[in-house]
Amino acid sequence: MDTTASHIPLSPLDHALPGNYTCTVCYLPLKPDVSFSKAFEFLQEGLQRIFVQAGGQDSAKSAGFILGYDELRDSGFPIDTFDDAFLTWFPFFSDTNDGPDVFVAQANFLPGGGILAASMHHLASDGTALYTILKLWADHCNSLQSENSQQPEPPAPESPDRSLLDSIWAKEVKEKSMDNIDPETWTVFAAVIPANRVLKSAIFYISPANLAVLHSECDRERSRVSENDLVCALIWRSMPKARTGAARVSAGSDASKSDASKSDESAHLGMSFDARPNFGQSVPPSYLGNLAMLHHSRMPFSCLTAPETSISIVARIIRETANSITTAMLLDAYTLERGVLGYESLVFRPTGIDGSTTLISSLLMLPIYDASFGDFIFGNKGMPEAVRPLMGPLNCWTRIGFVLPRKTSGGVEFAVTLFDGELELLGEDKGFSKYAMLLC
To answer: Which keywords does the record carry (predicted)?
Structure first.
């Protein structure tokens, strides 16, 4: 095996991200007669087929399970059943001066199934790239277990090329100066800062029937919006209502003063989006670098939370914002990023857990439930039964919601971060509970 190190320089967008790992866990049922070691061998061999050097290690944490896979399934695959450190051997943050691994993974087994945790270092790749690697890993595992020896199709040859964005920028951007670019263009880049209080994560579920109700109500208002717009609108409209309701209870006699101040604020939604389709035709969907950016929607807080403001109205605002993102704007943002004197001078825009900002990252269209790790070893045709983000460190940082990949049933799950009092008020919000139910 060739062990020569291959050095791939990062792009300006890669340097702009915090030095953390973005981790996803897949819940995979095991066939009844399959041992943990056998399943690990297939996962390890499948991964080795992707990377020049790969491997696994036995974990000292792997003994003493008191929970079975069926119990996890019955409880809805909660995010917080295990500490993040139990499912992963790598830290959330890593010192880039120590040369952290780009891709890290840990296979965890318990009676009846496995929990596969996989992560990409955020300076090297974004969430879309992680799902590209997960799908390729699944394809290789599936190939190992099938009679068809044909190798899975690899990512496009230019996928790991971090000079690709520079090439597109040099070709498409005529005016290279930063002087005439709107400073607000900086807002396509995201950031988070630590907080003293710790949020909790919850998973909600919207059934196919309730999604159909959302669509029909939107159609009556003649809104041309996507399903993703509707789900994100439901989250954005409901979370601030629960947040301010809980704050009002805590404020007591000062609540009226707090409400008056809040009504004058502008509620802010930052939504991450995959810029691969918009940055340039030369960018393949399998591009492995960072191309996740933000678009920003704003509404007066009093308007966003008003009973007469329908989900359709909020979804239209989100759609208008998304439609305003053009290739020219993305290239302008790249011009700004390239023009900084040093990447260490990039200051991330804070969000925190207080204030009127909500962040949403939608993974709805990522087809991870179509990825099969092979049905010789795993149940459910080798496909994950659930996909969850690891939220532990994020709960100390920022209010963020994840719209999870679409279920094979057509339903949609999403994860949000809340305090206990806010979760109770959210359940009492009929405009929310009409469509979404608390799963776990």
So the answer is: Transferase
